[in-house]
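Justification of resources, computational component.

The compute hours requested in this renewal are based largely on the per-chain cost of generating structure records like the one below. Each record pairs the submitted sequence with a full structure-token output. That output is archived, and it is also reused by downstream analysis tasks.
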Amino acid sequence: ILHTFQASYAIVKDCNCDEDTACYSCIQNYRNQSRHDYLERRHAVNFFERIFYDVEKIKNVEQLKVTLKNE
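The structure output for this chain reads:
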């Protein structure tokens, strides 16, 4: 799932639309048509960046556990 998040992040991060809006190249689609006025690309970028930050924190905790176990 992390690979899927990374691919999605690249799409929203590199899109050329304004960060305070969205477009059909990044977030908008037919199904969310009624919500287009509320979609902002920057929220998606922030969401993925928080996920990646948390993944790194989890990796650090796991590494610390291994280190402490081996001492």
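Residues 59 and 65 are 10 Å apart (CA to CA). DSSP finds two helices and no strands in the chain.
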